[in-house]
TrEMBL record, chain A:
L-histidine binds at D79, M80, T81, E127, Y271, Y272. Keywords: Amino-acid biosynthesis, Cytoplasm, Glycosyltransferase, Histidine biosynthesis, Transferase. Its main location: cytoplasm. Belongs to the class-II aminoacyl-tRNA synthetase family. HisZ subfamily. It comes from Dubosiella newyorkensis. This is ATP phosphoribosyltransferase regulatory subunit.
From TrEMBL, chain B:
It is found in: Cytoplasm. It comes from Dubosiella newyorkensis. This is ATP phosphoribosyltransferase. Catalyzes the condensation of ATP and 5-phosphoribose 1-diphosphate to form N'-(5'-phosphoribosyl)-ATP (PR-ATP). Has a crucial role in the pathway because the rate of histidine biosynthesis seems to be controlled primarily by regulation of HisG enzymatic activity. It catalyses: 1-(5-phospho-beta-D-ribosyl)-ATP + diphosphate = 5-phospho-alpha-D-ribose 1-diphosphate + ATP. Its EC number is 2.4.2.17. One of its GO terms (cellular component) is cytoplasm. SUPFAM superfamilies: Periplasmic binding protein-like II. GO terms for biological process: L-histidine biosynthetic process. Signal peptide: none annotated.
Length: 371, 215
């Protein structure tokens, strides 16, 4: 069979696309390194069990699965956070950290065919493991610095917290089905169905108003006041006050105008326990950065450490930036008889620039330099 | 910042344009189309393009269109990566389950086959009823399939019910009501929040006026 096609959702990356990704990688790595993050590499395969342990709402169909020699189920990693959580608990057993780890690696998710979405994407990010929510500010500052370093025309870091929603569900005494349905509707900002669904739940008007307002509870500073006024319990107020503090600190650090809040942000992954955030860039339909605090994940693997991290989607970012094409700027044309001489000359010229050798119909070696 | 809006071609398009007109938008270009595919609003910083219902979701999900107007029927069948912020309350109809009167679908013992253009909607409906049925995808004239014995029943859109009646089918249940929705790309909502909210606000007022006019 003359097989020339790639599996759905996969693509080759060539020329400028590669260079863009590499350039982005270098820029981001430089920022991460300056924050003290060290590189970690993990295998592309993990046990399926590792993921099913980490997520209670794992979407099986999203994962590429295989069998190994023992007939155990393997999967292509769907993220880097879980492999790193696993690695930290085994490699740094009984150490308290903090661990600052960075990575740049391909991750895999099965995407619907013909949807134009990628099944293999490169994630470039950091995990700060062993520090509690007091370190949120450091992680957010690092994310903002990284976004800044990319020289994007217009970007926005959107900050939310899972606690606002989770706390409200607990106080409202919702069961798991109710919580999940609300989470889905609020996350999709599906205002029509949200209203219909809330009408079927037994709750006070105050709580109903709270949930009804969550999807649009986003924007600049003034949203914090609105969130405070909607809070129907002291626990909720204290969540908002924490966000207010973050806001004051970020402004003091000079990041004002680069971030927003969204209290209606509900993560798809159920391992987040505190702040969650996403970065958006003009001209890109999806977030280019996502992250958050996950204080219970490492516990699953046997080392009870809090953690927070984020990652950039390099492929999506690469589509937004343009860089000048780079080609060999010196050409050495030579006749077959003088190939050795041509290689010698080329070797010297390489100190000046990139050299391309070309066999040509010429009498003697000829050097062409471009500006 | 300028907004781009994907409108679903056909029946919904006319009703959406009527709504936009009533809100004071300049949709002249949409009425005198010629060969153009992209239309500029003459009063607001807005650009329209016309697409098929399924493509409306695709364009919005990819962020090529910031917002889109599309029927709930299509949304129920398609992707989920968008915000659904407003019910325009136009293009109203409903999903129904129908069969021949002699096919007692919900009490049948044995294998049940359902013909539909909307496999996801049908699957979810029967799952919610605790029934395991076989779904057969049919692309047109779904009413035909039970008549010819391909299926025991159908899940389809019903507006007036005339077609079903003509073919001797009876409605057994309503799956859900359908109407046109305004969907918004997630990133657009973050980066163009004000523009999007203004548009929603304008259309929302019109929805309320239409509802008041009906009463």
């Amino acid at each position: 069979m003359n097989q020339i096609q790639l599996p759905a959702g996969f693509r080759d990356s060539i020329l400028d696309e590669c260079r863009k990704k590499n350039e982005l990688k270098q820029t981001l790595n430089a920022v991460f390194e300056s924050y003290g993050y060290e590189e970690i590499q993990t295998p592309v395969l993990e046990f399926y069990q590792t993921y099913s342990k980490a997520f209670s709402n794992l979407n099986d169909q999203d994962m590429y699965k295989f069998f190994d020699q023992e007939q155990d189920i393997l999967t292509l990693r769907i993220d880097m956070t879980v492999p790193i959580a696993r690695a930290v608990t085994t490699r740094f057993k009984d150490e308290m950290g903090p661990f600052r780890l960075r990575y740049c690696a391909n991750v895999y998710k099965v995407r619907p065919s013909l949807s134009g979405k990628r099944s293999e994407v490169m994630d470039c990010g950091v995990e700060l493991i062993g520090l509690d929510h007091h370190a949120d500010l450091e992680v957010l500052a690092c994310a903002l610095e990284a976004l800044n370093a990319l020289n994007l025309p217009n970007f926005m870091l959107e900050i939310g917290t899972v606690q606002f929603f989770e706390c409200a569900c607990q106080i409202a005494d919702l069961n798991e089905t109710g919580r999940q349905t609300l989470a889905d509707l609020i996350d999709r900002k599906s205002l029509v169905e949200l209203k219909e669904y809330l009408d079927t739940l037994p709750m006070t008007n105050q709580i109903r108003t709270f949930f009804l307002n969550l999807p649009l509870l986003g924007g600049e500073k003034d949203v914090l006041e609105k969130a405070l006024s909607l809070s129907f319990a002291p626990e909720l107020e204290s969540v908002v006050l924490q966000m207010k503090q973050l806001d004051a600190q970020l402004t003091e650090l000079g990041y004002g105008g680069l971030y927003q809040f969204d209290f209606g942000k509900i993560p798809h992954l159920d391992y987040y326990t505190g702040i969650i955030f996403e970065g958006f860039v003009e001209g890109v339909g999806n977030s280019v950065l996502s992250g958050g605090r996950y204080d219970k994940l490492l516990q699953v693997f046997g080392n009870d450490l809090p953690a927070c991290g984020f990652s950039f989607k390099l492929d999506t970012l690469a589509e937004t930036i343009s860089i000048p094409t780079k080609k060999a700027n010196i050409q050495v044309l030579y006749p077959q008889a003088q190939i050795v001489e041509a290689l010698k000359i080329a070797q010297k010229l390489r100190q000046k620039g990139n050299v391309e050798l070309r066999l040509a119909n010429v009498e003697t070696i000829y050097i062409k330099e471009e500006e | 910042m300028s907004l781009s809006m994907a409108l679903t071609k056909g029946r919904l398009e006319k009703k959406t344009v009527e709504m936009l007109d009533a809100c004071g938008y300049g949709t002249e270009a949409l009425k005198d189309k010629g060969r153009a595919l992209v239309f500029k609003d003459s009063k607001k910083d807005l650009e329209y393009f016309l697409v098929k219902a399924n493509d409306c979701i695709t364009y919005v999900e990819h962020g090529v269109a910031d917002v889109g107007v599309v029927g709930k029927d299509t949304l129920l069948e398609g992707g989920k990566y968008y915000y659904e912020l407003l019910d325009l309350e136009i293009g109203k109809c409903r999903f129904i389950v129908a069969s021949l009167p002699e096919n007692d679908l919900f009490n049948k013992v044995g294998h049940i086959k359902i013909g539909t253009k909307y496999p996801n909607v049908a699957r979810n409906y029967f799952l919610s009823k605790g029934m395991d049925v076989e779904i057969i995808k049919i692309d047109g004239s779904v009413e035909l399939s039970p008549l010819l014995g391909l299926c025991d029943g159908i899940v389809d859109i019903m507006e007036t019910g005339a077609t079903l009646k003509e073919n001797g089918l009876i409605v057994l249940d309503t799956v859900c009501p359908i109407s046109a929705r305004l969907i918004v790309n997630k990133a657009s909502f973050k980066l163009k929040r004000k523009e999007v909210m203004d548009l929603i606000h304008d259309l929302e007022q019109e929805v309320l006026r239409n509802a008041a006019a009906l009463e």
